[in-house]
Design goal:
Calcium-responsive mitochondrial glycerol-3-phosphate dehydrogenase which seems to be a key component of the pancreatic beta-cell glucose-sensing device. Helices cover about 45% and strands about 15% of the residues. With about 725 residues, it is of the alpha+beta class.
């Protein structure tokens, strides 16, 4: 108690000093400015009208081709580009947006899933008296509150624990976190608080106990990033923006300015990636919102322009949900190399990341084994020794490219800008770069402001503060109950639909097929352990999904949660899409192959395969080798040195267990390293070594063979469902 009083006293001194320097005058000025903006909007703006029906992709492409001239053409369908489209169209500007891939296919779907102000940036602002960093944190905290308000179905506050292992750090961190609350002001989500050691372990029982002093808990927001991005783009489309994914820009169009004679950008030559058809989109202003690809579009404008983007790769991993509490995250403020690591519950799994390493710009970033192991090592440092952190428990892994930028408007063009940068070229190209997910709306506002000024566009004021995104208007925390009662959906599925589609969940439920069971009445799952149902695939096509990768990565999040589950769901997803989109058999095969390639390289399957290869060393003890040989020979009765599907079927039939041939083929294929249709003894021993070392977990063949051995005389049924097996 005495220590807590001392800590609080220390904190009050720190809070008072920094608040005097940074906070009070700026807080008052910010609120006056924001209040004035809202008052102007209320007085001057006409009510916005949203279309009840989402235009089809074909009609959007038709609008791009047929419109004589748009006011604004935005290149890039990530969070910032989609935010620009929504900002522009709600100001009354004739707006177009094109995206080469799918909405949120790049960095915007590969974030840490946090909506935050940036605790570490506030620390820098205080330690270095950096007013720019302070303003950036303040802006982000305002945007955090706005994002939680406009998409309540996709976002929620999340408590995050900062464990403390040294006594002197407790008041130090407590002051910093309390300042974070203070800067947020009236938009503070919930007040931070100190926990004793026992209370911290009660809330986060997986935490390392030894030397733990206590913990501090603060609040930030969390969201479904890809779905949030899509909601922004769909909302813009419903307000009248012509938005089209899978539409790439081939080159920028230019014409001479009649007044100055200089060449000015007047649109772009575009190509529908799906059909190959090319067409021109004319616009008074073109905005470059392409994230890591900022420089490639800038060079379309001026070939000799210097690069401003300095890409950095951030790797995340997903582990089973039992690694973290359901509603408590963890922050490691100082890793072994000075980075910050978050360890967060997300979609009933646990997400850990991120790294920060220089990289090349690529459409297909790949997570490296080095980065995966770095994250695992840091996680081990904070979790109890009772929890074995296994490499095999990594269910998915991905890399996102963060587009750090230098400011071309600054005299110091070598210095990395921590904030976003808006630049207008001599030919009129407006580039928005840098920034972070949380501040997408203010970035879009600054960009459209710059475009309106540079091109003399007639537009109203920004109207996106407090503007609800699609699905948010009719959502409530109890909406899922109506889905259960009205349609007969499982409670878990109903909650998922409500928290993904908001008030549009009823449209998805209407498409759900009857299961033929007593319960649930409707809603066939794509895979047993996740709440995604088949009708989501049909509905996603209406929301511009065009490929199987769109479905597993962004319309559902299967690829980000469990790549094995995503792989299992793919055949059914392709079948449903093929029927709706009238794909040929060849097209179905191509989609399946492309999606498997995506899982293999970009979502961690490649890293998984490297854990178990035909060159893997066998390091089992002699006793273990004999035991596993005996188990293997129970299936290999003829002493061939390998087992096939027929061998497994024979043993299972002897104990009255039926597993269909396709399932058995999948089970053996997981271990068949040389892909010859059989599992050799050496491969089996390599598998058991990998399991023993924690490199592989949840192998269905290993579970099946062990269960068969134990139950050969008892004739018990053997489960072959995946047991949270990882990469």
């Amino acid at each position: 108690m005495a220590f807590r009083k001392v800590a609080k006293g220390t904190a009050l001194v720190g809070v008072g000093a920094v608040a005097t320097v940074f906070g009070l005058s700026q807080l008052s000025q910010y609120r006056k400015k924001h209040g004035h903006l809202v008052a102007v909007e209320a007085l001057e703006c006409k009510p916005l009208k949203m279309q009840s029906t989402l235009p089809s992709r074909e009609s959007q492409l038709q609008a791009l081709r047929d419109t004589h001239e748009f006011d604004i053409l935005i290149i890039g369908g990530g969070a910032t580009g989609s935010g620009c489209a929504l900002d522009a169209v709600t100001r009354g500007l004739k707006t177009a947006l094109v995206e080469r891939d799918d909405f949120s296919s790049g960095t915007s779907s590969r974030s840490t899933k946090l909506i935050h102000g940036g605790v570490r940036y506030l620390q820098t602002a205080i330690m270095k008296l950096d007013f720019d960093q302070y303003r950036m944190v303040k802006e982000a905290l305002h945007e955090r509150a706005n994002l939680l308000e406009i998409a309540p179905h996709l976002s929620a506050p999340l408590p995050i624990m900062l464990p403390v292992y040294k006594w002197w750090q407790l008041p130090y961190y407590w002051v910093g976190i309390k300042l974070y609350d203070l800067v947020a002001g009236s938009q503070c989500l919930k007040s931070s608080y100190i926990l004793s050691k026992s209370k911290a372990l009660e809330l986060f029982p997986m935490l390392r106990k030894d030397k733990l002093v206590g913990a501090i808990v603060y609040y930030d927001g969390q969201h479904n990033d890809a779905r949030m991005n899509l909601a922004i783009a769909l909302t813009a489309a419903r307000y009248g923006a012509a938005t089209a994914n899978y539409t790439e820009v081939l080159r920028l169009l230019k014409k001479p300015d009649p007044k100055s004679g200089k060449s000015r950008i007047c649109g772009a030559r575009c190509r529908d990636v799906l059909t190959g058809q090319e067409f021109d989109v004319k616009a008074k202003c073109v905005i470059n919102a392409t994230g890591p690809f900022t420089d490639s579009v800038r060079k379309m404008d001026e070939q000799e322009v210097p690069n401003i983007c300095q890409p950095s790769a951030g790797v995340h991993i997903v582990m089973p949900g039992y690694y973290s509490p359901d509603n408590m995250g963890l922050l490691d403020p100082s890793t072994s190399d000075g980075r910050v690591i978050f360890f967060l519950p997300w979609q009933k799994m646990t997400i850990a990341g991120t790294t920060d390493t220089a990289t090349e710009v690529t459409h297909h970033p790949i997570p490296t084994e080095e980065d995966i192991n770095f994250i695992l090592t840091e996680v081990r440092n904070y979790l109890s020794c009772d929890v074995e952190v296994r490499r095999g428990d990594v269910l998915a892994a991905w890399s996102g490219i963060r587009p750090l930028v230098t400011d071309p408007n600054s005299k110091d063009t070598q210095s990395i800008s921590r904030n976003h940068v808006v630049h207008v070229s001599d030919s009129g190209l407006v580039t928005i770069a840098g920034g972070k997910w949380t501040t997408y709306r203010s970035m879009a506002q600054d960009t459209i402001d710059a475009a309106v000024e540079a091109h003399g566009l007639h537009a109203g004021p920004c109207r996106t503060v407090g503007l609800l995104l699609q699905g948010g208007e009719g959502w409530s925390p109890t909406l899922y109950i109506r889905l259960v009662q009205d349609y007969g959906l499982e409670s878990e599925v109903a909650q998922h639909l409500a928290n993904t589609f908001g008030d549009k969940a009823f449209e998805v439920a209407k498409l759900a097929q009857v299961t033929g069971k007593r319960w649930p009445i409707v809603g066939k799952r794509l895979v047993s352990e996740f709440p995604y149902i088949e009708s989501e695939i049909e509905y996603a096509i209406q929301e511009y999904a065009c490929s199987a990768v769109d479905m597993i990565a962004r319309r559902t999040r299967l690829a980000f949660l469990n790549v094995q589950a995503a792989d299992e769901a793919l055949p059914r997803i392709v079948e449903i899409m093929g029927k709706k989109l009238k794909w040929s058999e060849q097209k179905k095969k191509e989609e399946l192959a492309e999606a498997k390639k995506f899982l293999y390289y970009e979502m961690g399957y490649k890293a998984r395969s490297e854990q178990l290869t035909d060159r893997s060393e066998i390091t089992l003890s002699p006793g273990d080798i004999e035991r596993y040989k005996k188990r293997f020979h129970m299936f290999d009765k003829e002493g061939k040195g390998f087992i096939t599907i027929l061998d497994v079927q024979r043993v299972l039939e002897s104990i009255n267990v039926q597993i269909n041939e396709s399932a058995l083929h999948e089970i053996l294929n997981e271990v068949d390293l040389n892909k010859n249709g059989q599992v050799e003894l050496n491969e089996f021993l390599q598998l058991m070594t990998a399991i023993q070392k924690g490199y592989v977990s949840g192998s269905r063949l290993a579970v099946l063979m062990k269960a068969a051995e134990e139950n050969i005389h008892r004739r018990e049924k053997i489960s072959v469902d995946r047991s949270c097996g990882g990469l």
